[in-house]
Design goal:
0% strand; 16 helices
Amino acid sequence: MDLVHVGAALAVQMVVILGACRLSGWLVGRFLHQPRVIGDMIAGILLGPSLLGWLAPQAQALLFPIETRPLLQFVAQAGIGLYMFLVGLGFRRAHFHLQAGSAVAVSLCGIIVPFLGAVALTPWLSAMGLFGPTVTRFEATLFIGVAISITAFPVLARIIRERGLGGTPLAALALSAGAIDDAIAWSILAILLACIGADGMIAVRALGGGGLFAIVMLFLGSRLLAPLARWAEREGRVTPAMLLVVLLLFGGCAWAMDMAGLHAVFGGFLLGVAMPRGILSQGLARRLEPTTIGLLVPIFFTISGLNTQVTMVDSLSLALSRWRSWRYRSWPRGAPAGRRRG
């Protein structure tokens, strides 16, 4: 499939995805009183191999050809990164300063309790043959603990936004705890990858590079970005040139976190938190929100459904283990195929 046909197929996919998300979101909100993000994920499952691919595999392959998947994934990742940037723009740093201790306590509970559960679950899951013979009990326990403790950070952020809680102390506490929780969990995952024979620099990059980036953005970011804020104040608005500069910074921050071995969305979130408040932040929100929330974000949440195949849960014991992991958390990026949430 050449580039022209890939672009045309992607346009059709976006129309179908957005229509399915709108309908599914309305149904779950109207009859189940659930956030629209749940409807987006259900729409992805219905359009993926679990239903459409099962009922009409040829139609599903025609609608979502394999050649378009990388481009669709790129659009989804860019969308969720920009969304987390907007979440960071709405983050009240004053609330975090007042609740920093509580955020750390909640985050540690979100790590310790799942790891205690992992200690209990790992012998049973290992007996089921979930891990290869070369994986030690310690490594398996670390993986299960990380998988359960990882926060579905974008889902959390969207639920907070949809429920009108953005900018409240509760939102600051939840987002802070989720961010700390994920940073710890991703660091543990990096250490695990180093333990099982991968590049030992993975852990160094995650702990050193990711930590250094977060410190710079949280403590020096506002000062470094102050000239951009003064530029916006002089102009009285966010100009196209300012928007371009911010998007370039966003891409650089996402790349930096990805290179550190952490998820790229943290780069966008930290940039949003560090962005000076005022005309700059307000103008950026007005320019980016319509396209990001209305077009790009539903694609990201639908992608998870497109990559989920419910029919792989073919036994009661496997279904129970999947249910325990799915009920509260999402699997981290890079988990083995067939073991992700769903």
